[in-house]
Write a structure and sequence with these properties.
Layout (H helix, E strand, L loop, with lengths): L1 E5 H11 L14 E7 L2 E7 L3 E8 L1 E4 L1 E6 H9 L5 E6 L4 E6 L2 E6 L16 E6 H9 L16 E16 L3 E21 H10 L7 E6 L3 E6 L2 E6 L8 H4 L6 E6 H12 L10 E6 L2 E7 L4 E7 L1 E4 L2 E5 L1 H8 L6 E6 L6 E4 L5 E5 L5
Helix pairs in contact: 1-2, 3-4, 6-7
């Protein structure tokens, strides 16, 4: 095998494919890229048996072929090359030579026989949306997946297509995050759970250009993402996700409209009093035109008033400030609406169109 390519293009492809490389494993092939050169490109493939990535890089291919090389080693070599042009040669013994200017790296590669290729899957349905939109939907929901592995479903996100609506939801039994968008047409109903790791890694390489599109395809056990020169296939999490609709309510006893920036500043100041081991809530005393926030820790306390527009009953309720901060960080609206039922029921933060809905359970006070 013999090819040459641009160092920056090579580095970009390596960074994408690294998302599916395991840090430590007893299978050496899972620490490797499959490098395949043919026609006018090279293809890098990585696979950790749950998540697989293929990405292509423009190249001048003199001799086609393929080889396995340790991913971290290749990344380190290419990142430190002195010139833009990179030349790679592989002999019959899988010895890999990498040249750039006067620099020459030599590394022993592996044969490709034991590498797990990405599965060939027949996908039932596909949708196309903006990469930017998907990136934003993930950003606005991923923070409320669970980090605990004892309930696998909670470590993923629900992707549900219902006619012309795509809904993404996550929950950790204390809070729920939901984002919804309209699609370009109606589709058959689909309801799957995609691992949080897949979505985290995907969001890191999605474009912020609203004109760049991504195709998402679904099968019974897998999801596929295709965009630009990259293909990502992930296993789905099996099982029935929680009934999100059952958790949502439309009636309320108290509604509060507040400026997001002012509210965010108050909550951030309140969180300074909370240590990791503390479970003290911020107590909201909501009365006409005013929301008073109080918090007490072992050695400190804080009180602050925020001007609000209130509808309905007065209310006193306690909420973990961290969970409110997580929500406020991903909402772009100037004003936000909070809906309450009573001191023992969840707080809802949502907009009029309900394109986003956040649910947070209160803390007894």
């Amino acid at each position: 095998m013999k090819f040459s390519c641009n160092r920056d293009n090579f580095t970009e492809g390596i960074n994408i494919a690294m998302k599916a490389i395991l840090g430590k494993t007893t299978m050496p092939t899972l620490e490797c890229f499959l490098i395949e050169a043919k026609d006018d490109h090279i293809k890098l493939t990585s696979n950790d048996m749950q998540l697989g990535i293929e990405t292509t890089i423009p190249a001048e291919v003199t001799e086609p072929g393929m080889v396995l090389m340790n991913a971290k080693t290749l990344s380190d070599y290419v990142r430190h090359l002195p010139q833009e042009k990179v030349e790679v040669e592989v002999d019959d013994n899988n010895t890999i030579l990498i040249f750039s200017g006067s620099t020459r790296f030599e590394h022993m590669g592996l044969g490709d026989d034991d590498f797990p290729r990405l599965p060939e899957i027949s996908f039932d349905q596909e949708i196309t949306i903006s990469q930017f939109t998907l990136k934003e939907m993930i950003r606005q929901t991923i923070f409320s997946i669970s980090s605990k592995e004892n309930n696998k479903l909670l470590t993923g996100e629900l992707f549900e297509i219902n006619k012309d609506e795509l809904r993404i939801a996550s929950l950790d039994l204390i809070r729920v995050s939901i984002r919804k968008i309209k699609l370009d047409k109606e589709y058959d109903h689909i309801k799957v759970v995609i691992p949080g790791k897949t979505l985290n890694e995907l969001s890191k390489i999605l474009s912020t250009d609203k004109d760049d599109m991504i195709k998402i395809s679904f099968s019974k056990n897998h999801v596929k993402f295709e965009f630009k020169d990259t293909l990502i296939i992930s296993r789905l999490i099996e099982g029935n996700f929680f009934n999100i609709d059952q958790m949502l309510k439309n009636n309320y006893e108290t509604k509060v409209k507040v400026n997001k920036s002012l509210f965010f500043g108050c909550i951030e100041r309140a969180s300074l009093l909370i240590h990791e081991t503390d479970k003290n809530p911020v107590v909201f005393n909501i009365k006409d035109g005013e929301m008073k926030m109080e918090i007490k820790s072992t050695h400190s306390s804080m009180n602050e008033d925020v001007t609000v527009e209130k509808e309905g009953n007065d209310l006193r309720i306690g909420i973990n400030p961290k969970y409110i901060i997580d929500v406020l960080r991903v909402i772009d609206d100037e004003d936000i609406n909070l809906y309450f039922f009573n001191a023992n029921s969840p707080c809802f933060i949502k907009n009029k169109e309900e394109s986003y809905i956040y649910l947070i359970l209160p803390i007894n006070i």
